[in-house]
Amino acid sequence: MRFLFLLFLIVGLGLAGFAAYTAKNRFDAYEVRLARTLELEAQKDSYVTVAVARRALSYGSELTPERVLFVNFPTRVVDIVGENWFLTEDDLFGEDAPNPSLLRNMEMGEPISRAKITGFGREAGVAARLGEGFRAFTIRVDVASGVSGFLTPSDRVDVFWSGRFRGEAVTRLIIENIDLIAVDQISDQDRNRPVVARTITVRATPQQAAVLAQAQASGALSLSLRGIGDVAETGDLEVNLDDVVGYVAPEPVIAEEIVPEVIAPRRTITIRRGSDVSIVNAD
Which pTM does this prediction carry? Predict the structure, then answer.
């Protein structure tokens, strides 16, 4: 009997301890969930909805409400981006306006920004990317002047002109850091496959377009591809044949001034003896 009593006592204590342990875990979990709920309630005003792509979309696709999803983003992130993102469906699609098109490929869940879509009702193309005050200008290129076909839309290049100026062959940097918006007839910014182009189209001001037109008519244009994020300005740069071969013109030789020797006149004495006349030196 004593053995059974001890056995039941031990089992009872174990069950009581297990029940207490389970109850404590449940209370701890409840407190964690409650704290999380209170935290989310406190941060509810710290989130805003942002329009993102519901699925992967390709360049030129029409953006419709069925292809857009609104998800919560922290307010501090949206504040940094500013007005570049769309926070409501009315901001993105407008009222009774045709749907915009994509200017580049988008991945699922990627925020939709104003730089990635056209204006309302516009198709994806060169005109949609010009902006006010800019013009599209086309430059003829080949495999050499077009950086061996590695140019793609959205790249930035420097433009060099080579020709004869005032009887001398020169190459000059005429425009720096200009945007490429199309290669041949392709304006897809996500195209990264090399292609040997015959023409490239740049985004230029009217003044730059006039310079390019005159330069293309009077000489040959070559392009130099810039690295990503390179915005350094080179300034005036001109090279002639002397710079190519390293010729340095000799300095002009200044002739010494020759002072003529001044010869003092000789003093003479004239002697007359009758009809005879003789001259002798008096020095």
Answer: 0.50
